[in-house]
C-alpha cells in the first residue's frame, strides 16, 4: 500500500472517519485527501467542478507533491500527459477526459477540434486536447519524481521513456516559438503563460477584437464568483485568439498576440538543467543542455531585465517593447542558478519592497504589483497570491542564500494552505480563500514543503549553485 492509500484509508480499505471531538487531521492527511479526491485513475484534475480535465503545468506541480506519497502515481501523472503529445513536440495545455460532458467546461473539445484542426501539426487521434501549451515545468518535475524512488524509476524505465518526449517538447519551443528572434520563447495566448488575466497582457490584448458574447458560454462562472474571475471582455479576447490559432491549423507565426514572458522562459531554462541531469542518469552526458540553459538565462537578462523596475518585464514582440507592468512572472527567474548575483539581490529587494511586500504587508507574494493601477486582491491573476509561484520563489530565495526569507515564506504557505482549505488562490493581505478550494497543486505543493524540509536542503535542481546537496 502506497503512502497516499495509507493516509486516506483504514487498513481494511475504508475511508478515514474523523471524530469531530478528536484532534483534527494533519495538514499532510488533508492534502493527501485532496489529491485522492481529484485522482481519475490516470491523472489528477485541478478541481472536480471547475477544472474537470488534465492540465499541463498543473500535472507537473501535482506530480512534484505526489512523489512523496506514491512515486508510481507521480510517474503515471506525467506519463498520461506525455502520451497526449503532438507529433511536432508540443504538450497541449489540456488533455480532455471523454467521460466529462461537453458543457462542463469551456472551451471544450468541440471548440479546439484538435484531431481535425491540428492534423498537420500532428495532433493525436486517440485523445482530444487543446492546441495551445503551458509553461514547461515537466522535465524538472520528472527529475524530482525520479529522485523520490530511483529504484522504481529505473525498473519501470520512467526516465528512458520520458526523455525523448521532453527533448522534443523543448525543441518545439526553442525552434518554433522564437518569434522575436532573440533566443526566447514567445507565448501566443495568455492561457499559455498560465497567468491568464494578468495586467501584463492588457496592452497586447487591446489589439484583439473580442469574440461576440453570444458565441460562447462561460462555465467557470458556475463555480466561482464573477468578481474573482476574468471579465467578459477579457474572456471574449481569449476566445478570439484561440479560435484564430485553431483556424490557422495551430501553425506558429506572427499573430495579434506574441509575448516573451520571464517565467515561461525561466522554467524552460530550469527544465533544460533538469534534462541535463536526466541525460546523465541515462548514461548520456549532454553538456549542451546546461549551455542552452545558460544562454536562455543570458537572453532573459538581455531582453527582459529592466533596471528601473528592479525586475524582469514581459516583452510585446509585435510592438517591440517591454510592457511596463510588474507581475510575479518577472520574479520567477530567481529560480535560476546562473542568474548574476547582483540581479538576484535586486530581485530579492523587489520581492520584499513596496511592490510585492513579502515579509511586510503581504503573507504571500501577490501575482501583481500592489501599487499598480490594475491591482485587485481577489481577481484571478491581477493581485491574489498563488501557491505555485510562491513555491518557485521559495526555492529561488533558498538557492540564492536567502534562507531566513525562504523559511518565512515556507511557513506562511503551509499556514495559508491549511487555513484556506487548499484554495486555488488567496488574498495576499489576509490569505482569504478565493476561487475554488481543494485545489490540486495547492495540496501537492503543500506536501512538497512538508517533506522537503529546509534543514535537509534541496534534492533537486536548485539545491545550491554548485549542484545537489543529496
UniProtKB/TrEMBL annotation:
Keywords from the named record: Glycosidase, Hydrolase
Keyword Protein biosynthesis carried by entry: no
SUPFAM superfamilies with a match to the protein in the record: Six-hairpin glycosidases (SSF48208)
Segments crossing the lipid bilayer: none
Domain Mannosylglycerate hydrolase MGH1-like glycoside hydrolase: 51-442
One Gene Ontology molecular-function label: Glc3Man9GlcNAc2 oligosaccharide glucosidase activity
Keyword Hydrolase belongs to the record: yes
Name of a matching Pfam family: MGH1-like_GH
Family annotation (InterPro entries): 6-hairpin_glycosidase_sf, 6hp_glycosidase-like_sf, Glycoside_hydrolase_63, MGH1-like_GH
GO biological process terms held by the UniProt record: oligosaccharide metabolic process; protein N-linked glycosylation
Family classification: Belongs to the glycosyl hydrolase 63 family.
PANTHER family membership: MANNOSYL-OLIGOSACCHARIDE GLUCOSIDASE
Protein name: Mannosylglycerate hydrolase MGH1-like glycoside hydrolase domain-containing protein
Organism: Streptomyces qaidamensis
Amino acid at each position: 500500500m502506497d503512502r497516499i492509500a495509507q493516509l486516506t484509508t483504514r487498513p481494511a480499505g475504508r475511508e478515514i472517519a474523523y471524530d469531530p471531538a478528536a484532534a483534527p487531521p494533519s495538514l499532510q492527511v488533508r492534502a493527501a485527501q485532496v489529491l485522492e479526491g481529484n485522482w481519475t485513475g490516470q491523472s489528477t484534475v485541478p478541481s472536480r467542478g471547475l477544472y474537470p480535465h488534465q492540465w499541463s503545468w498543473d500535472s507537473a506541480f501535482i506530480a512534484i507533491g505526489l512523489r512523496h506519497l506514491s512515486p508510481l502515481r507521480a510517474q503515471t501523472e506525467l506519463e498520461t500527459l506525455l502520451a497526449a503529445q503532438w507529433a511536432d513536440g508540443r504538450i497541449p495545455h489540456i488533455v480532455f477526459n471523454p467521460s466529462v460532458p461537453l458543457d462542463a467546461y469551456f472551451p471544450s473539445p468541440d471548440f479546439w477540434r484538435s484531431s481535425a484542426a491540428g492534423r498537420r501539426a500532428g495532433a493525436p487521434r486517440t485523445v482530444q486536447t487543446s492546441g495551445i501549451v503551458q509553461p514547461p515545468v515537466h522535465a524538472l518535475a520528472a527529475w524530482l519524481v525520479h529522485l523520490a524512488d530511483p529504484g522504481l524509476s529505473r525498473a519501470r524505465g520512467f526516465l528512458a521513456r520520458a526523455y525523448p518526449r521532453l527533448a522534443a517538447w523543448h525543441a518545439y519551443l526553442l525552434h518554433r516559438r522564437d518569434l522575436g528572434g532573440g533566443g526566447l520563447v514567445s507565448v501566443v495566448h495568455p492561457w499559455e503563460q498560465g497567468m491568464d488575466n494578468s495586467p501584463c497582457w492588457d496592452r497586447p490584448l487591446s489589439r484583439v477584437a473580442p469574440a461576440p458574447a453570444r458565441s460562447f458560454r462561460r462555465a467557470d462562472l458556475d463555480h466561482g464568483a464573477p468578481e474573482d474571475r476574468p471579465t467578459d471582455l477579457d474572456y471574449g479576447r481569449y476566445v478570439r485568439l484561440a479560435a484564430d490559432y485553431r483556424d490557422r491549423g495551430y501553425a506558429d507565426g506572427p499573430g495579434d498576440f506574441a509575448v516573451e514572458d520571464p517565467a515561461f522562459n525561466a522554467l524552460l531554462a530550469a527544465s533544460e538543467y533538469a534534462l541535463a541531469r536526466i541525460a546523465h542518469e541515462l548514461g548520456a552526458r549532454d553538456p549542451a543542455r546546461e549551455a542552452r540553459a545558460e544562454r536562455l538565462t543570458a537572453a532573459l537578462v538581455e531582453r527582459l531585465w529592466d533596471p528601473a523596475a528592479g525586475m524582469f518585464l514581459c516583452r510585446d514582440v509585435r510592438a517591440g517593447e517591454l510592457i511596463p507592468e510588474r507581475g510575479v512572472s518577472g520574479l520567477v527567474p530567481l529560480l535560476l542558478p546562473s542568474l548574476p548575483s547582483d540581479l538576484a539581490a535586486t530581485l530579492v529587494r523587489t520581492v520584499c519592497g513596496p511592490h510585492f511586500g513579502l515579509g511586510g504587508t503581504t503573507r504571500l507574494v501577490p501575482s501583481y504589483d500592489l501599487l499598480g493601477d490594475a491591482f485587485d486582491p481577489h481577481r484571478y491573476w491581477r493581485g491574489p497570491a498563488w501557491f505555485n509561484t510562491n513555491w518557485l520563489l521559495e526555492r529561488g530565495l533558498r538557492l540564492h542564500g536567502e534562507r531566513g526569507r525562504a523559511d518565512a515564506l515556507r511557513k506562511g504557505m503551509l499556514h495559508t494552505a491549511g487555513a484556506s482549505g487548499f484554495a486555488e488562490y488567496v488574498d495576499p493581505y489576509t490569505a482569504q480563500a478565493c476561487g475554488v478550494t481543494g485545489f490540486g497543486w495547492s495540496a501537492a505543493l503543500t506536501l512538497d514543503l512538508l517533506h522537503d524540509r529546509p534543514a535537509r536542503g534541496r534534492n533537486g535542481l536548485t539545491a545550491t549553485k554548485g549542484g545537489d546537496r543529496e
